[in-house]
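Handout, section 4.2: multi-component inputs.
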Amino acid sequence: MTEEKAEEKNKMASVFLPALGGVAVCGGTHGNELSGVYLVQEMERQRKERGDGVWPIPVTTVLSNPRAVKECRRYIDTDMNRCFSKAVLSTPITDSSPYEVRRAQELNNLLGVKGSDDVMDMICDLHNTTSNMGLTLIHYSASDWVTLHICKYLQTKITKVPVRVLVLDFPINDAYNLESVSKHGFTLEVGPQPQGVVRADIYVIMKEAVDLTIDWIHKFNSGTVFEGGDVEVFKFIKSVDYPRDPETRNLTAAVHPQLQDRDFCLLKRGDPLFLSFSGETVTCEEEEPLHPFFINEGAYYEKGIAFHLAKKWTLTVPSVQVQTTNSA
Amino acid sequence: MTEEKAEEKNKMASVFLPALGGVAVCGGTHGNELSGVYLVQEMERQRKERGDGVWPIPVTTVLSNPRAVKECRRYIDTDMNRCFSKAVLSTPITDSSPYEVRRAQELNNLLGVKGSDDVMDMICDLHNTTSNMGLTLIHYSASDWVTLHICKYLQTKITKVPVRVLVLDFPINDAYNLESVSKHGFTLEVGPQPQGVVRADIYVIMKEAVDLTIDWIHKFNSGTVFEGGDVEVFKFIKSVDYPRDPETRNLTAAVHPQLQDRDFCLLKRGDPLFLSFSGETVTCEEEEPLHPFFINEGAYYEKGIAFHLAKKWTLTVPSVQVQTTNSA
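Output:
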């Protein structure tokens, strides 16, 4: 066999992977991101009405931060979606522990324990953003074929809005998002939607993405071969803050109207970034063209982030199919 | 003189009104409506840099709810923009009084006292809404010629977004909004903008409206005659709540995609109102066609309001000019 043919054969060969036990669908990790809150409540209503058989695979539904949901706030004491690193999950709990640290450890026991063999196969954590990001799937690894195949599937099936994949690509123990507790999975961001508001159009897109994820897992477990190919992903590079008053730290400018709502565009040196409150334009000074995202996300003002920047690259994923007694 | 001619003469005659002492521009009455917060801060920066002469009339700037602004929340204890009725303003203050009741009484002493001769001539209270309401001027009286003339002026001058006038038309003593403290004035609503976010496009529109208000007062005080004519206004009729679960009171539906973002359209019997979280459409059952506004406003979920309904009517305002020694 020539080298070329061997490579071709290698490309075509399926990677055999274990069947997936099911999925945990989590909403309200941030209590004021309402599409996920109402979707989880709707799924729980469906289960009550029609029993577990409503889905073809085991589905766990979780309202992640019930106290924040009740108060319609992002969080009570601290951002829970920064509490799922190994370090925070192993912090001893005391009377003064933030509510979200306690709740994160509870969720880790329910869905994990992170890093152990018993963790959930997949978490799909539902979020909204005030940014015009369409449907964005965020996850931690550039080599998790199951997750990347689901992303690819959603990209093929959802046509109403752009579906993009964002890879953070840092060690899983340092990963601080809820979905990092499970073997596979992703954060599902849908926007634009204001905090404390549910928009039917955004809710419908989120529901379609969750239904398709369940659909993919069912098909995979049933033996469907998912063909490999290229997946275009965005990789986080750096964050950019708003211009601020050096003394008060108050913002002195807003995102420029020419950048607002243009998440994932190609931002080049000289392009407008900010419009100051007195009317001056601040332009981009980056040497390399990059893709901005989470542009003017409401929750990031306090984090000192006006937007993130990403680089686009292409991942090649192999074909995958479920491991059976014969294939194992 | 015939009756017709007398009527004609009456129409043409100017109403002479006292010069206006200035305007109070208030932002952050709701702490997470950021355009007004940043506009007031910018005006204060300009005054610091260039002195009081920066405006041709006396301008007072007020950050109405500084604690809520600091926490980026609508309010701390209670909605302050419901605290300016005579009843709440005269409630005795105790240790357990809500922060906003105390602050409303402070503001009433600063800008009022409501109902007395010493009140500010005009308050312009800056707000944002998550609804697609463009620029909406809200005020209490259908016969306040000064305010209606400023509305008319803004309608003529601002072309980027629709400028609409909403009249609540109930007794001034019961009126609970901050602007009701002054002789004239209005609440200036600009949207759509998420809570906790400032969008440059929305900020620029709000700034233009405030600049034009100052401009109108200056021209009026300088003797300009403002010609009378018709002003189209919307009058509040009733509120409509979301469909809710009878037990939990949770929402069971969101505003329908065909209604979302269509504030001030004409809503007729049979038009879609809501889309339930399981996919069913709820339609309008009103006998009379009406105009919905504040559609899906984030702050109104807790108030049990999915949208308000209004009726459109036309007000005829007379020409106005400033009272001088000669004319008085």
